[in-house]
Structure to design on (805 residues):
């Protein structure tokens, strides 16, 4: 396989989506955990752990979306109509959540309302993202470069299960993040969730994997044809190892390690997804080459991305570095 | 069962609604960012505290507007794929890259300079801070550059070839610098400046009417009214040049704007008011002035302009809408001109700050910049119809293969969410304006740099304003 322009672009967009899952996953997860923590000051601390980074996390969704539009317009114009209402739902959820995050800090009497908006926005956005992933994974019918499937294809058991699965995934990530970033009673209560949440996450990943392999011959073929499984076997084995690692880290109080292992599970799950669909960008039959924009467009955008992407990446890394360490009650950050 | 034409109407309504709600915020951001750069420059030069006081005050409102603009802007790019799949598939290779450049520009800006501008007072020297402010101001204009390049290409497309039913970009310089782009860029930038000027003037007038007349209030009123005096006439000249350009490239749009149905030999009259009737193919109740149309649109006494009947009925934009949206825009422009001129007359008599009828007029004109901006965009976008890419792709062929029920549902969701969310944002901005600039506000009073472990060079724009929203 040679690295041509569409492959390079698939890599860049794949990276953006991966970073989005990695970074916005835990901060959406905080919204999902919000209803269960409302003792004095707890919610402020939870929000303060992501206050300086949450909007930066969302930029990856915007960046990935814009590049997908510019470089793979055929994928963009077939995927979005196929998941029309989930996309709109996700956007509304993110708008609500983002503004609630900011306004909440300025609200006194109406703070409960903004908390509710934050919870519902986070939940809706997450569930809709799961629906989108599930619909993509189960395949979208494309004829002659146009979406030709069922506009309500996302209203079926698999995408709905993926939606629920993503809620659990993000909540688990949020839990891992908060255990790392907080201390005291809040951390102790969150710590109790760590092990059961990881087990549920493992079960969900297992079910989704089996479901795709059993339901889609092409995916089964990819994983099990010839010697393929020998190459791909590390993926599920490493997931198992990560869960064991999380258990041990939880026992020994290695909070950062537990969180990083959770992120590693996300990486492995995402790798599994890519193994299942590549080189299609919209399975079952739209490849990255068929979906790509003309070469002149790909090169034009690449120039800008090559200059700006390293800057955004280093800025992101720097933000997390400067912001390292525990967040405590009373250390206002709004 | 609903038909494809319903999908088209609903998708257009949805885009019109979401983009109208969005454009308000970037327009305010562009205008205020440039005003802030001027304020800080004056402060550095004169050392007068009033400029810094105004800088602190308006940077809060700028920050909230900027935050709202970022949130509402995300929706737009996804709508291209969701509602306008035919367009995304056909022209995504031009539209997509230009939008991506806008996103990259905005990220670059947010990544550094915005943080320094809003929160970096205690960290960087005055000159470096000023540099950051100037770069933010330029950055907002640069964002507009890409969006307007994309929109102008849809109005006057060039630099491409169509292969297998899809646009292949050939020459990016030609694509970006298409014939209507320079005119649109100038017209829109001036419009954003006027948006900020009318808002600043309206805000100061409100405080003056309520008996508050601190140095910050009188200074900002004087600056804003002066800006309107200068910018309103320049905008008229720019608009006139834009109109000539449109007549050359999109004559049907001009005919629809003027409610002109047939070519008038020996000089075109101008319909001042009237009601263009698309079915009857004439402009009812027209009140027109002979030769004025020729004078304005051809800069000659007898110039001729093609009428709408020269275009097939299926190729005509809706004259009823653009006739009136254009007149609303021009009307606002004339009122702004009047505001500037009256301001000058009162200033010369030293009565600028205490003439109550003038202050009420300035207050009423507060939203006039935004009204003119929206009316102008409605004119140019509706005037492009029935094309989405002028002369190349019809809007009807651009919609997604989705059902009217879906588009209707999403439209309803957007209306509810937008009114709640952006209604709150606008309310908060108005609340901040009502509080007014605070004399004697020092750098030490600003948010930023709290807590050792949390110290950071940047925070989110909306946390610049710390005033409670509901008390």
């Amino acid at each position: 396989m040679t690295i041509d322009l569409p492959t390079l672009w698939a890599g860049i967009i794949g990276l953006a989506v991966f970073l989005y899952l990695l970074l916005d996953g835990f901060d959406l997860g905080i919204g999902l955990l919000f209803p269960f923590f409302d003792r004095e000051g707890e919610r402020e601390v939870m929000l303060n752990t992501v206050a300086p980074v949450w909007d930066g996390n969302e930029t990856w969704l915007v960046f990935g979306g814009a590049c997908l539009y510019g470089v793979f317009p055929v994928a963009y114009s077939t995927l979005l109509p196929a998941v029309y209402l989930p996309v709109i739902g996700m956007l509304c959820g993110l708008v609500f959540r983002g503004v609630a995050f900011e306004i909440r800090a300025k609200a006194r009497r109406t703070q409960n309302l903004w908390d509710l908006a934050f919870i519902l926005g986070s939940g809706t956005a997450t569930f809709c993202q799961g629906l989108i992933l599930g619909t993509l994974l189960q395949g979208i019918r494309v004829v002659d470069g146009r979406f030709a499937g069922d506009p309500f294809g996302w209203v079926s058991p698999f995408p709905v299960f993926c939606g629920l699965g993503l809620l659990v995934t993000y909540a688990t990530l949020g839990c891992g993040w908060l255990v790392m970033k907080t201390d005291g009673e809040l951390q102790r209560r969150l710590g109790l969730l760590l092990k059961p949440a990881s087990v549920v996450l493992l079960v969900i990943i297992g079910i989704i994997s089996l479901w795709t392999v059993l339901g889609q011959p092409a995916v089964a073929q990819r994983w099990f044809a010839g010697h393929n499984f020998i190459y791909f076997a590390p993926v599920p084995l490493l997931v198992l190892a990560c869960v064991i690692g999380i258990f041990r880290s939880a026992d020994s109080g290695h909070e950062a390690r537990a969180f990083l292992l959770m992120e590693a599970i996300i990486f492995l799950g995402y790798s599994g997804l890519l193994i299942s669909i590549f080189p299609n960008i919209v399975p079952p039959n739209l490849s990255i080459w068929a979906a790509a924009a003309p070469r002149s467009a790909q090169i034009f955008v690449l120039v800008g991305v090559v200059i700006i992407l390293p800057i955004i990446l280093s800025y992101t890394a720097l933000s997390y570095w400067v912001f390292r360490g525990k967040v405590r009650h009373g250390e206002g950050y709004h | 069962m609903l038909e494809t034409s319903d999908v088209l109407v609903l998708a257009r309504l949805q885009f019109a609604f979401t983009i109208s709600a969005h454009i308000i915020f970037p327009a305010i951001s562009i205008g205020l960012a440039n005003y802030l750069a001027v304020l800080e420059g004056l402060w550095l030069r004169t050392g007068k505290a009033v400029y810094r006081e105004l800088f602190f005050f308006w940077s809060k409102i700028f920050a909230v507007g900027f935050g709202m603009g970022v949130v509402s802007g995300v929706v737009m790019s996804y709508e291209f794929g969701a509602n306008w799949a035919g367009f995304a598939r056909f022209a995504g290779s031009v539209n997509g890259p230009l939008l991506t450049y806008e996103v990259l520009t905005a990220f670059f800006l947010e990544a550094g300079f915005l943080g320094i501008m809003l929160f970096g007072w205690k960290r960087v020297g005055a000159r470096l801070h000023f540099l950051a402010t100037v770069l933010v101001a330029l950055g907002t204009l640069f964002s507009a550059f890409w969006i307007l390049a994309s929109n102008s290409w849809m109005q006057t497309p060039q630099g491409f070839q169509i292969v297998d039913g899809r646009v292949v970009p050939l020459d990016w310089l030609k694509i970006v610098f298409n014939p209507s782009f320079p005119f649109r860029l100038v017209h829109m930038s001036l419009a954003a400046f006027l948006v900020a000027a009318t808002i600043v003037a309206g805000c100061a007038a409100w405080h003056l009417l309520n008996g508050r007349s601190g140095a910050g209030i009188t200074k900002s009123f004087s600056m804003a009214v002066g800006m309107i005096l200068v910018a309103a006439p320049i905008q008229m000249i720019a608009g006139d040049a834009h109109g000539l350009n449109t007549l050359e490239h999109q004559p049907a749009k001009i005919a629809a704007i003027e409610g002109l149905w047939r070519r008038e030999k020996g000089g075109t009259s101008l319909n001042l008011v009237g009601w263009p009737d698309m079915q009857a193919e004439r402009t009812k109740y027209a009140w027109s002035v002979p030769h004025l149309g020729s004078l304005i649109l051809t800069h000659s006494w007898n110039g001729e302009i093609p009428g709408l009947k020269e275009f097939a009925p299926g190729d005509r934009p809706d004259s009823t809408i653009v006739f009136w949206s254009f007149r609303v825009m021009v009307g606002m422009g004339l009122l702004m001109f009047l505001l500037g001129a009256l301001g000058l007359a009162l200033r010369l008599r030293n009565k600028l700050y205490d003439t109550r009828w003038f202050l009420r007029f300035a207050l009423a004109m507060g939203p006039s910049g935004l009204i003119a901006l929206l009316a102008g965009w409605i004119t140019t976008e509706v005037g492009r119809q029935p094309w989405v890419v002028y002369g190349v792709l019809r809007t009807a062929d651009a919609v997604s293969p989705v059902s009217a029920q879906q588009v209707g549902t999403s439209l309803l969701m957007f209306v509810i969410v937008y009114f709640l969310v952006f209604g709150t944002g606008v309310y908060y901005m108005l609340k901040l304006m009502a509080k007014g600039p605070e004399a004697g506000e020092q750098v030490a009073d600003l948010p930023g740099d709290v807590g050792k472990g949390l110290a950071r060079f940047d925070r989110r724009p909306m946390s610049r304003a710390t005033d409670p929203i509901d008390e």
Q: What stands out?
A: Chain B has a mean pLDDT of 90. Residues 150 and 468 of chain B are 39 Å apart (CA to CA). Chain B touches chain A through 73 residues (CB under 8 Å).
